[in-house]
Write a structure and sequence with these properties.
Distance between the termini: 71 Å
Order of helices and strands: HHHHHHHHHHHHHHH
Shape: elongated
Number of helices: 15
Largest sheet: none
Structural class: mainly alpha
CATH topology of one domain: Serine Threonine Protein Phosphatase 5, Tetratricopeptide repeat
CATH architecture of one domain: Alpha Horseshoe
Helix content: over 70%
Number of strands: 0
């Protein structure tokens, strides 16, 4: 038994080294390198057939291939689901497996009871897990209009926790996930997001991400929400240590929203002199 685990670990470590290289240089995450990871983890799994991490990673990698392959192998999606289900059977309370299952099922267009349960369990077991925030936001928005009202509430709660996350970069990851799943955004979900953005404190380290998200969704907000968020944007300008927020507002031609409310300081006047007062 010890020898078998040793062989499994040998192949798994090689797999982990490749994945580690992606974190340093994302361009290395190619289809061929993903297939190399799959081959190594399959070897590892042959020596440790019920190893929860190997099963999860194989589900994750086949899911990645299903999403990025130019010519999709029809087997990658089903294989991803099967490995993830096997991993869940071994470790049912691990949230990352559930959130990965959400992503794969949404990509495959499987809006069924299993998807609903995966959304619930991902949020239940990983309420403050940054990866869950990202994956559940992306997948949940992608399937949002197909979900029952109660499950939509779980998706909204996950997004709200992600935007309020104290984790460094947490709100930024959720913002990116919203962009990636934006085709699934509905008016009621955007309005809910707007009220949430208006009602929470924007962490200093996430002010730029919050500004980008607000401006991105701005055209869909109603007049009352825009008034509330104008206050938030004005505060963001003052709290921003540089001029990034001001530049984002200028690029979006929305400087006019905040200029009337900014302190009469030269750094703000310089931007506001050329502002087009629109949207107020």
């Amino acid at each position: 038994m010890t020898a078998r685990w040793g062989f499994a670990d040998y192949y798994a470590r090689q797999s982990e080294q490749i994945i580690g290289s992606w974190q340093k240089d994302l361009s290395l995450q190619t289809e061929s390198s993903i297939r190399e990871v799959i081959a190594l983890d399959e070897r590892a799994l042959s020596f440790a057939p019920r190893h929860r991490t190997y099963l999860y990673r194989l589900g994750q990698m086949h899911g990645a291939l299903h999403r990025i392959s130019r010519i999709r192998n029809q087997d990658d999606g089903p294989l991803s689901l099967q490995y993830l289900r096997d991993s869940i059977a071994v470790r049912p309370e691990w949230p990352l497996t559930w959130s990965e299952l959400v992503l794969t099922k949404v990509e495959m267009g499987e809006y069924d009871a299993e998807l609903h349960q995966a959304i619930v369990n991902a949020a239940k077991y990983g309420p403050w897990e940054p990866i869950v925030h990202h994956q559940l936001t992306r997948g949940g928005i992608g399937a949002y209009s197909q979900l029952p009202t109660a499950i939509q509430g779980v998706v909204r709660g996950n997004i709200q926790r992600g935007l309020a996350s104290p984790e460094y970069g947490g709100p930024s990851r959720v913002t990116r996930a919203i962009y990636l799943g934006s085709q699934g955004l509905t008016v009621d979900l955007v309005w809910d997001l707007g009220l949430h953005l208006a009602g929470i404190e924007w962490p200093n380290r996430s002010i730029q991400a919050m500004t980008e998200l607000t401006l991105y969704l701005w055209p869909v907000f109603n007049a009352d929400t825009r008034r509330l968020l104008t206050v938030k944007l004005s505060q963001a300008v003052v709290l921003d240590r540089g001029t990034v927020v001001l530049r984002k507002l200028r690029a979006a031609q929305q400087l006019g929203l905040v200029c009337p409310y900014l302190p009469r300081e030269e750094q703000y006047k310089r931007f506001c002199r050329s502002a087009r007062f629109i949207g107020r």
